[in-house]
Here is the input.
Amino acid sequence: MNIVLITPEGPTSRTGNRVAAARWARILRGLGHRVQVAADYDGRPADLMVAVHAWRSAAAIERFKARFPERPVILQLSGTDIYQYVDSDPEPTLRSMALADRLVALNDLAWRVVPKRLRARLSVVHQSAPRLSHPRQPSTRAVVVSVIGHLRDVKDPLRAAEAARLLPATSRVRIEQVGRAYTPAWAARARAEMKTNPRYLWRDDVPGAAVRRLLARSHAMVISSLSEGGANVISEAAVAGVPVLASRIDGNVGLLGADYPGYFPVGNTEALARLLKRLEGDPHFVTRLDQALARRAPLFRPEREIAAWRRLLAGLRV
Here is the structure.
C-alpha cells in the first residue's frame, strides 16, 4: 500500500508523537508498504492515511476523507486528545475520531474516554523499545533517579527534584533530568532548582543514545505527568529493567497495571519522597518493583508492536 503518515510538527523532533510516528513509519515499511511522512496532507493520492493526534490532524483527516471517502484512516489518539482536547475543544477532536476507520490508543485504559459509539474501532498498540546495547549497571556513586521528558506543564517536571529535597541529609539519591524546556520560564526554573538543590541536575535536550546511557545507570525513573497517552519512556524503562515511580493516572496505570506498587498521587511531593526513600533503603520494595515491571516488559517488545500493526492493517478493506 501507499500510506501517508501525518504527524504535526512540534517544538523538537523528539516529541513523543514525532518519535512514535518515525518508529511506525519504519514498521510499516518493514511490512512492505510505501510510507510518506508529512506534517500535513497535500492532497496527493494514498491508499491509507495514518494520522497522529486527532485535534492537530483534524484538517488533514477531513481533506483526505473528502477526496477519498472510501479509503481508510487510522487515527492514533494522543494524550492531549483524550485527556484534554476531548473536553476543551471537542468538536474537531470528535470529528476526527468519527471520520477514522480505526482508532489506536497507547494504553489499556484509554477506552474509558472514547465515546461508546466509537469503541468498537479502538485497538491498543503498546509502544515498543529496543533492549539496551550494554548491560544495565546502576551507578555506585549515587542512587541515580532519572526523569526523562521535556519540561512542560503537563509533565510536572520538577516534582522529583522537589521530592528529593525532603529526603534525609544522609540520602544518596540524585535526580538527573534530560529533556528540552518548552519555554524560557521552564528553563529558568530548572536552572534555579540546580542552584539551590544539590540533589538535582538538568542536562537539557540530549541525543537518544545519551538517554539510554542514563537509563543504564539509573536505579529508577520517575514519570510525574498530570496526563499521558502512553509514554514510550515507560516502555524503555521496562525493557531496560529500570523500576518506575509513576503518578497514578490512566496513561501510566494503563501501561504498568493496576497492581503496580510504584504509584504516587498526582502532584504529591511527600508521597513521591516516601517512594524515593523506600527505593534507597528497602530492598524488598525494589524487588517488588522489579518483579511487577518484569511482568509488564513483554508488552513492549518490538515484535509485539509489529504484529499489532500487521493485524490492524489486515482488518482494513483497502
